[in-house]
Design a protein that fits this description.
This protein has 123 residues and is mostly beta strands. 0% of the residues lie in helices and 50% in strands. The strands form two sheets. Strands 1, 4, 6, 7 and 8 form a five-stranded antiparallel beta sheet that branches. The chain has a three-stranded antiparallel beta sheet with strand order 3-2-5, with no helix packed on it.
Length: 123
């Protein structure tokens, strides 16, 4: 219960991109239900190099029941929920050219992508 976030160590080959994270509750039969999501738009100073990005998942309150799993989905787009990023660095309101971005997400000891969730102990 409270504010959650996804800490992503990621790289893109473009001058800008979006990182979208979605927290899901997966039941015993594999059905995934969205709990919270968020987005961060980044301008890249060094294309291709990993950087740390924090995606705010806002506040939520949920009990993950026994047998359920926590899933974190990561992408660089979720249109039409969030406005498009054309990955060019052009101003969003006037951009006309789109490019495909090559994205990398890291999860290793030096670049520990992770989800941060507050836990309230049982009363």
């Amino acid at each position: 219960m409270g504010p959650g976030s996804a800490v992503l160590f990621a790289a893109t080959d473009g001058p800008s991109t979006d990182w979208v994270a979605r927290l899901c509750d997966v039941d015993e039969s594999g059905v995934s239900r969205n709990v919270a999501d968020g987005i961060v738009r980044v301008r890249v100073s060094a294309p291709g190099q990993a950087a740390e990005h924090v995606v705010d998942l806002w506040s939520t309150s949920i009990v993950f029941r026994a047998g359920h799993q926590i899933r974190l989905q990561v992408s660089s787009s979720n249109f039409p929920r969030w406005d498009r990023n054309l990955n060019t660095g052009e101003p969003e309101e006037s951009a006309t050219t789109a490019r495909v971005a090559q994205q990398q997400l890291f999860h290793d000891p030096d670049r520990p992508s992770r989800i941060v969730l507050p836990v309230v102990p049982p009363a």
